Amino acid sequence: MRFLRIFSLLVLPALCTSCTATADEGGKIPLTTTSEMAKDHYLKGQSFLDGVRRTDAHAEFGKAIEADPEFAMAHLNHALTSSNSNVFFESLGKAVALSEKASEAERLWILGQEAGVNGDRVKQEEYWKELTQKYPKDERGQHLLGGYYFGQQQWQQAITYYEKALKVNEEFSVPYNQLGYAYRYLEQYDKAESTFRKYISVVPDDPNPYDSYAELLLKIGRYDDSIRNYRKALEQDPTFVASHIGIATNYNYKGQYGEARQQLEKMHQSAQNDGQRRAAHFAKAVSYVFERNVEAALNEYQKAYDLAAKINDGSSMAGDLGTMGSILSEFGRGEEALQYFERSFKTTMDSEEVPANVKDLVQTFYLSNLAQAAIQRGDLKTAKEKAKLHSERANALQNRFQIWLSHEIAGRIALSERRFDDALAELKQSNQQNTYNLYRIGLAYEGKGDRKSADEWKKRALNFNPLNDLNQALTFVRASKEMSAK
User: Fold this and answer.
1) 20 to 30 Å CA-CA from 334: which of 11, 29, 200, 462?
2) Is residue 41 part of a domain?
3) 26 phi/psi in degrees, rounded to 5
4) CA–CA separation, 143 vs 159, rounded Å?
5) Is 230 within the bounds of a domain?
């Protein structure tokens, strides 16, 4: 399950009731709570989160907080399992405030998470490295740091820490999932498959192992086998969101868009909360983009936006507006796109729930949106001005994702100016998990007259097969348009 890549960074530590952090306690991360009832709910939440049942986990962490309002780690995981950004920021803030009363290990864990949310990946790595150095015999701490490197696309370093976690406890199921994905990203598909099969054997009654194996099969183009394994996951849990989305993604790649949306409608009807309903709308929107049905895609995002607006979830609303702007921009509606980008930015800045540090990061991202909108309009002077400002801020933050984005923008500008060598130099430093960037590299080679390399990169982009990915849909649309023009 792909969103585990986000939440598995934050799986829960071993529990110790009313304890202090000392490295001589078997090398395990202690956890501070004064309530046995809070401990019980926390452990249930931990079990649910290990199985990627986030809705159930969220409820248990909430009950742990009711039993012990000063339970810092319960607040942290209540944040991380929330589908509501207002709840996320509120609960994270409480965890940070309570971290000084908790153990040293909990404090490092929580402050590392806060640093990540603020876009300070350097500080996040420092906190979590210190955590693993002081508690080397705790499998969850090793897995946490592995997840950090996974998120930075440093696959081999991630594998190192996942293997350390499994060396401590080979029955700890969660690292098998991320380890399998890391091998997948390294294109070591045999190792990925054997790892996912081991994951299934460790927790055969959980849906996520079947789901993750199905995503590997999706990646390598075995669509029907993938669908069968996604259905096995749904046999374990009919409400397992990612498996509904996975089946729909397979149908999109098979060109069966109606079947894809039928599956997503089943997901919508069985949704347990608005977060899952929003996910169904997002997936439907991607399916409509594959079909080049822009209005239907925008309508699905509007439905998701309306759900967020009901509870004044400013961060989610801003994200929806920004994505709608990106879709409009890609389909040549640059002026409308700019209006959506501006609304997205204003929504975030006006939100009282979004912390100041996060708003600083959003200001950086907004510059990238302005640059990309200018590129689509052919206003390269403005694009260069905004790109320069974005690059300066991204490098000052030392934020890998924003730095990747700055290279992407520079590469797109170079493509527009037919500076193909410069475009290649920039795009090869952009996010290589964004299939549109792979396709742009193909365009740069094509501009240089290197047809063989161009075809290789375009084929790689079109066969990348990520799970429910808007960039993949936009790449498909661009390639279809190009083929129609020939």
Assistant:
1) 462
2) yes
3) 75, 10
4) 9
5) no
For the chain, the domain total comes to: 1
Structure pTM? 0.86
Which range marks the domain in which residue 92 is found? 1-133
Closest CA to 144 of 30, 50, 9: 9
Query: Looking at residue 42, which CATH number applies to its domain?
Result: 1.25.40.10
Task: Note down pLDDT in tens along the chain; length 486 residues.
Answer: 543 333 333 333 333 333 333 333 557 888 899 999 999 999 999 999 988 889 999 999 999 999 999 999 999 999 999 988 899 999 999 999 999 999 999 999 999 999 999 989 899 999 999 999 999 999 999 999 999 999 999 999 999 999 999 999 999 999 999 999 999 999 999 999 999 999 999 999 999 999 999 999 999 999 999 999 999 999 999 999 999 999 999 999 999 999 999 999 999 999 999 999 999 999 999 999 999 999 999 999 999 999 999 999 999 999 999 999 999 999 989 899 999 999 999 999 999 888 888 898 899 999 999 999 999 999 999 999 999 999 999 999 888 899 999 999 999 999 999 999 999 999 999 999 999 999 999 999 999 999 999 999 999 999 999 999 999 999 999 987 775 555
Tokens of 206: 């959980």
| Domain assignment of residue 73, yes or no | yes
